[in-house]
Write a sequence for this structure.
């Protein structure tokens, strides 16, 4: 019969085995390569704001690296103490939880790392290990499960969701001044499946813009947000994205357009095909790519209606990790008179501190707002009165920063600003 | 029937955009005892699917959900 020590050793080895299951050439390289140069310390907004070593990207990865050394590296296996090999015991898991779920996954550290070590990738292994140990973040797990439940039981929610869309449709008719404007749902053969958030705020302005552009579109019954991705479970994450990807196949659309949401775009465009193991029969785009094309092709009319100085914050998942930099700026320039970019910007943009699902983790609120200091400095330096950003998490974080630091700025979604700059018959009669 | 239930906690979620109403209910459910009830008022129509889906998947119970004027009112019971 196994004694307590043997059982504990087996459990530790099982947890360490998560690393082995996730092992790829890429991960091995990341775990072997770190030179501890600490260049990443100046790249991480959380470390810069707190000067706490547990938020140093190299240290976060080091926790996994030490388990790897003890269990999978020849030298570390024989002389673990010399190579700082460690077990995934209670203490290490406690530390791993805090450093891992605090990380926003912005990958700014990777951008500046001389070896391009992807700390977020290493932390995806950490999350898998925490989940295996029953220590995944409860809130993110619950939100992921709720989305999956909704997808598995759509008959239970269909009518209430469509009723909500009908209310928004009336507002769209008022704003456009066109009583025939509609929010199509389940429209077979539409060119575009638009995937919004659950909130009406991401449906209303898009519906106005699609209507004015005379687009052939239909609205997804499912929301784009993916808490399975934040939780760190690729199976849950895939199930959540499958809901609208399967819908797109069923409706035969040519394009899936993701709303102003950072991680949802990255999941749909970068990860989902690999998770599903097959190529999509449609392309995936971000809604701002569509709107930029509508403006440049003359499909919608806009004016430089935004007079206050305006700046743009690149959400990490759309910019650095998604490669979309110019289209949002071109849109903002087309609708405003005084655009002021932040410094640094594009690939080097500072993370605002609101990514990775951290805005849903109550106990991290104080830390999250503290970690946004670089963003506060950047916004202040522009002198802008409006900060435009196409990511819900970024906007929530920056609204919090605005409140705490009295920045006096309006944090806005770009679609809302576009609608404000469009000549619309009914706009004055309703608020968008 | 549900009008007779006295909530243990009132949550004003007006103005919050989905999924935040669901997130807030999820965060605050531990603040009421098992058997206790949260009365939540939201204005985003997305909450009408979000909050019941969260309750079903977590084993809690939406005692009632309905639109009153322009607001969505929920009574959510903590079951476990």
């Amino acid at each position: 019969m196994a004694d307590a020590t043997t059982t504990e050793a087996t459990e530790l080895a099982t947890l360490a085995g998560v690393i082995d299951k996730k092992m790829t050439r890429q991960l091995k390289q990341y775990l072997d390569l770190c030179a501890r140069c600490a260049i990443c310390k100046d790249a991480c907004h959380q470390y810069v704001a707190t000067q706490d070593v547990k938020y140093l990207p190299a240290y976060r990865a080091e926790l996994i690296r030490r388990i790897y050394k003890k269990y999978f590296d020849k030298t570390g296996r024989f002389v673990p103490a010399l190579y700082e090999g460690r077990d995934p015991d209670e203490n290490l898991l406690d530390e791993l939880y805090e450093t891992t779920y605090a990380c926003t996954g912005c990958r700014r550290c990777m951008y500046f790392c001389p070896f391009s070590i992807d700390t977020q990738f290493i932390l995806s292994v950490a999350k898998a290990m925490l989940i295996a140990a029953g220590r995944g973040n409860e809130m993110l797990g619950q939100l992921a499960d709720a989305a999956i439940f909704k997808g598995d039981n759509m008959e239970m929610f269909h009518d209430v969701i469509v009723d909500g869309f009908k209310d928004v449709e009336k507002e769209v008719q008022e704003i456009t001044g066109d009583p025939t404007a509609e929010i199509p749902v389940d429209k077979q053969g539409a060119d575009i499946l638009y995937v919004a958030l659950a909130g009406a705020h991401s449906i209303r302005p898009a519906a106005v813009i699609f209507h004015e552009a005379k687009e052939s579109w239909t609205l997804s019954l499912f929301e784009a947000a993916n808490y399975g991705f934040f939780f760190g479970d690729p199976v849950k994450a895939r199930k959540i994205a499958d809901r609208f990807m399967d819908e797109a196949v069923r409706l035969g659309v040519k394009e899936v357009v993701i709303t102003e949401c950072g991680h949802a775009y990255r999941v749909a465009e970068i990860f989902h095909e690999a998770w599903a193991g097959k190529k999509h029969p449609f392309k995936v785009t971000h809604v701002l790519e569509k709107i930029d094309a509508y403006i440049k092709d003359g499909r919608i009319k806009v004016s430089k209606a935004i007079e206050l100085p305006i700046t743009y914050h690149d959400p990490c998942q759309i910019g650095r990790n998604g490669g979309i930099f110019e289209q949002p700026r071109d849109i903002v320039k087309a609708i405003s008179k005084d655009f002021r970019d932040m410094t640094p910007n594009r690939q080097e943009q500072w993370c605002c501190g609101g990514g990775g699902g951290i805005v849903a983790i109550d106990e991290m609120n104080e830390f999250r707002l503290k970690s946004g200091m670089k963003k506060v400095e950047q916004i202040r330096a522009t002198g802008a009165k409006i900060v435009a950003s196409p990511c819900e998490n970024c906007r929530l974080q920056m609204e919090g920063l605005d409140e705490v630091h009295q920045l006096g700025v309006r944090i806005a979604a770009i679609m809302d600003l576009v609608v404000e700059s469009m000549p619309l018959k009914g706009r004055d009669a309703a608020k968008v | 029937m549900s009008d007779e239930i006295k909530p243990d906690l009132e949550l004003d979620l007006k103005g919050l955009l989905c999924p935040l109403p669901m997130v807030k209910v999820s965060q605050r459910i531990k603040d009421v005892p098992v058997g206790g009830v949260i009365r939540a008022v939201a204005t985003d129509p997305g909450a009408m699917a979000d909050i019941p889906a969260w309750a079903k998947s977590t084993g809690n119970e939406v005692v009632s959900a309905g639109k009153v004027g322009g607001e969505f009112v929920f009574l959510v019971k903590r079951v476990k």
